[in-house]
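ok trying this again, last paste got cut off
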Amino acid sequence: MSHPALHGVFAPVVSPFRADASLNVPAFVAHCKQLVADGAGLAISGTNSEACSETLSERMALVDAVIDAGIAPERILVGTGCCAIDDAVTLTRHALELGCAGALVLPPFFFKNVPEAGVFAYYRQLIERVNNPALRIVLYHIPAVSGVPLTLSLIERLVTAFPQHIVGVKDSSGDWDNLTAMLTRFPQLSIFPASEVLMLRSLELGAAGCISATNNINARDIALAHASPAHAARLSSGIEAVRKTAEQFPMVAAVKHTLSLLTGDDDWRHLRPPLVPLDADTAAKVEARMRAALPALSAARA
């Protein structure tokens, strides 16, 4: 079964929590609508979504709410990777039943230094148990967080065994050499760097777009830059300034704090443990630097 290639910019949508740590679903839906209006796709239940701090029912409810609000499922990737294969199967089947564009799948990440054969077996069991020809998997390589790398040899094994299901990779290594090696070795896959700065460098090499945390706060410019070289040339310095500002701080907390400034909703500053909000001094630094880097923030505060 052939599928159209995945491409574009996707926001790993951050999850808004109230002061009591409950999910604020209306705020999540409103944020998703704004991202789509700005030209981004949605990657729900990613790392920056704090998905591993959410229950399976919460994760599925967020996808349900966005689709019920009228956002086309074809614009949505769903993070479905879990340590327990049964949980991954449940989330993946749910995403498929709703018609989502694909599943963004972490390797099982609790046990470290596992053999490549074990990680291969995880993906094989997921594919075989889901047992759906429509399944499209974007492999999620984030070794600094997961501790379980998706090596080039493992990707090769998976693509060879399941060419109809393995359609892409999100490369969150931040390693330019690894990214270019993926682009060279797997031209049939949609390769998404996790940074729009790396996207701008790699579009001519065949990068499909990006799945980047800072799409949450700068989606319009990043989507425009992806769409045409002329926009990329005009917007690249500003895009890089926003990204580099966010990278100087704990990423999820900095993005959420910036969203609170953009929307005027202080609830965006809440995180679930073990992540913590920015302290007052750091929050002030984030605001000052984002004001200088992000024109939309200046407009919101004008």
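PB: full thing came through this time. The domain at 8-228 is CATH 3.20.20.70 (TIM Barrel).
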